[in-house]
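User: Before I run my own analysis I want an independent prediction to cross-check against. Here's the chain; please return only the structure tokens and, at the end, one sentence I can use as a sanity check.
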Amino acid sequence: MNVLVVNCSPVRNGATAEIVHIVAEQLSDSFTVKSVCIDDYNFSFCRGCRRCHATAKCVQHDDIDLIMDEFERADVIVCVAPSYWADIPGQFKAFIDRCTPWCNTHEPHASLSSGKKGYAIALRTGPSMGECQRIIGSIEHFYGHLEIECCGSLGLCSIEYKEALEPHMNELKDFCTKIKSPRK
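Assistant: Structure tokens:
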């Protein structure tokens, strides 16, 4: 099985990237794992033209197709997102907006192959879990419209720098164990 781990932050060497690295490493003994950073791709904002509602294709041709090819190849998708003003980073939101051709709220729509499982990891610098829940909710909403089954989530608070991850290593390892052995 193939796993795609997405760094939803534009930062390639911070706490979010470190979580992506940890998850990929933990899963690599059971799966073929690919990690990507949303900022490794070039794409424009959605224009709101709604042409994709009639054609199931975007009028813009850029790296969105490359990212969606990665989603298509994956059996399991893990999105890791930090809090940017109490929600997902703008770069990831712009990506989600561009996924409208795959959104199941209009016909015709493009679709990913069925049976994909999605997981979400949220992190924030502050101490309360509410903000993590909002981020997880955004990711799970996205998964739902792409018909990716939401299978689990993890929120991590008080994480500003990757050095703050050490006390959370067991949580991350336990979360990866759940991905490896999902409940039937």
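Sanity check: The chain has six helices and five strands.
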